[in-house]
């Protein structure tokens, strides 16, 4: 099978419609038309649409009765049915749909996707191939208790307490990850009988083993934080150092989301 070149393919389709153009100068202009038409879409969109149209072209070439351009809506429907059976993603269906539509329109042909049966098969594909949204389960006190049991033992390392602090502060203070990693040691104060202020998030101490304040003090002590330190609370750690018998912070940058996971 010949290699697919978008400009040449559209040029061939347009040439039949511009046969009446006889003037050499106008003919030269008409020959450059496909190259300029491509820029009606963004570069990434061009790439996606061209790739999906090429998939249609390869499929159509298997069957002698199928015409690539202009295409018949019935064969477009069968092509989409094949994609469904191949269990492609819904994004592939969308890109193929709009890619075929775009190439036909800029080539001056009627859009074969503008058909009730094609619209129906595209809608069916989205229903059949869509991945259901998996909602995250809420964090419960039982989950927090299990985290303390796993990471909060008497011999917990700095790495263990860092994980536990991330989870506990996020849970107790209703903080987003971006807010957690932006915290510095100087942002945290231990006060008695403090009232909630718009600029502060109050995390109360408890008498339970899961007390976030007690954990915070323990983490600060192991990390050797000073009260007025500008250091971020959550940073990357070096590998375990046998000579020191502990983990150490390896840089001054806040912890990344990827490393935290």
UniProtKB/TrEMBL annotation:
It comes from the Eukaryota. One of its GO terms (molecular function) is DNA binding. It comes from Paramuricea clavata (Red gorgonian). The lineage of its organism: Eukaryota, Metazoa, Cnidaria, Anthozoa, Octocorallia. One of its GO terms (biological process) is DNA integration. This is Integrase recombinase xerD-like. InterPro entries: DNA_brk_join_enz, Integrase-like_cat_sf, Integrase_recombinase_N, Phage_Integrase-like_Recomb.
């Amino acid at each position: 099978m010949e290699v697919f070149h978008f400009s040449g393919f559209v040029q061939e389709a347009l040439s039949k419609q511009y046969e009446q153009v006889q003037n050499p100068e106008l003919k030269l202009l008409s020959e450059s038309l496909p190259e300029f038409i491509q820029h009606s879409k963004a570069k990434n969109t061009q790439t996606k649409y061209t790739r999906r149209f090429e998939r249609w072209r390869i499929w159509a070439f298997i069957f002698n009765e199928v015409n690539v351009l202009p295409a018949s809506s019935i064969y477009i429907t069968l092509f989409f049915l094949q994609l469904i059976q191949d269990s492609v993603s819904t994004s592939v269906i969308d890109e193929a749909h709009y890619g075929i539509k775009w190439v036909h329109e800029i080539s001056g042909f009627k859009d074969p996707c503008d058909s009730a049966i094609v619209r129906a098969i595209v809608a069916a594909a989205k229903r059949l191939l869509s991945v259901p949204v998996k909602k995250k389960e809420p964090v419960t006190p039982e989950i927090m208790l299990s985290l303390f049991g796993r990471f909060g033992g008497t011999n917990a390392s700095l790495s263990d307490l860092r994980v536990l602090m991330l989870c506990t502060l996020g849970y107790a203070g209703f903080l987003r990850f971006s807010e957690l990693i932006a915290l510095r040691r100087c942002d945290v104060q231990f006060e008695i009988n403090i009232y909630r202020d718009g600029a502060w998030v109050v995390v109360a101490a408890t008498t339970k083993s899961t007390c976030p304040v007690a954990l915070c003090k323990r983490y600060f002590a192991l990390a050797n934080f000073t009260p007025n330190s500008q250091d971020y609370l959550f940073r990357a750690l070096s590998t375990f150092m046998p000579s020191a018998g502990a983990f150490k912070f390896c840089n001054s940058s806040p912890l990344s989301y990827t490393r935290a996971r």
